[in-house]
Amino acid sequence: MNDIVNTDMREFWNGAGAEKWLRFHEKMDANLLPFGQKAMAAAAVLPGEAVLDVGCGCGDTSFQIAGGVGPGGRVLGVDISEPLLARGIERAASNSGKNVAFEYGDAQILAFEAGAFDVIFSRFGVMFFDDPVAAFKNLRRALRAGGRVAFICWQATKANQWIAAPLEIVAKHVPLLEPAGPEDPGPLSLADPDRVTRILTASGFRDVAINGFETAFSVGDSVDEAVAFLMQMGPASSAIAQSGVDDTVKSKIAADLRDALNPPDAAAGVTMGSATWVVTARNP
User: Fold this and answer.
1) Which regions of the chain are under pLDDT 50?
2) Judging by DSSP bridges, how do beta strands 100-104 and 74-79 pair with one another?
3) CATH classification of the domain holding 47
4) Is 32 left (phi over 0), alpha (psi -120 to 50) or beta?
């Protein structure tokens, strides 16, 4: 693998990012289930198809897709994070299905077999390329003629309550990080639908369609769980971590978050608004 490509993202997802994700793995994948299902519906995977799952993480989406393609199909999950992928490989070893495989590597440069897949799929896994046009060109080469891509990505911060509200609270206690530039890789790098269209069109895809999907995002089964989650995952957690504040300030942030959440029925769990784009396109 070329060490020059996506080095920051690879370092993050093999370090702090992976540690956080693994800490919340089961909760995260349960919370993200509706988003993955929405993208899978858009992909319209058929029995017998071959699917490339980009940024597969611990493999939840790969295993779900494998159920759709059936024993006559196959799924290859790829990820830049060795710790996350190791969890997926471990789960595959005890999984009765034989149509799922995993490969460590950067989808921007991995040498996929040309035309080997019917579908390129991703649940929040394609926002981290430092050269998205090069990445999607590489992915398109892996698609057969007429193959399709379907992925889901976050809309802008202001459209996502689960991102915006904690950031507003954290900003009262610590300086916020400089927001990423519009061309910088990161979880919100595909928030602009015009940019998404430009990237996919420049990569050779056609029939680009982008549809909004808004839903309640579960951030915890209780207020305490929601506070812990928001302080350790997402942009607010990054601001807290990089500020170097002590436990006293963290306790104040947690108290403010707890007051702000205050759901009418805490027993039902804590949800916050979220907004995403479901993107589809075709390889001509």
Assistant:
1) 1-2
2) parallel
3) 3.40.50.150
4) alpha
Q: Exposure pattern of 181-219 as b/e (b: 16+ CB <10 Å)?
A: eeeebbbbbbbebeebbebbeebebeebebeebeeebbb
pTM of the model: 0.93
180 domain-assigned:
yes
Domain count, the chain: 1
Classify 246 as helix, strand or coil: coil
Q: How many CB atoms lie within 10 A of CB 71?
A: 11
**Residue pair 55/125 in contact by the 8 Å Cβ criterion:** yes
Burial-class residue 246 by CB neighbours within 10 Å (0-12, 13-18, 19+).
exposed
Residue 71 lies in a domain: yes
Query: What is the per-residue pLDDT for 238?
Result: 84
Place of tokens 């911060």: 157
Range of the domain at 162: 7-282
- Residue 2 domain flag: no
User: CA 245 to CA 254: how far, in whole Å?
Assistant: 13
Asked, for residue 26, whether it belongs to a domain, the answer is: yes
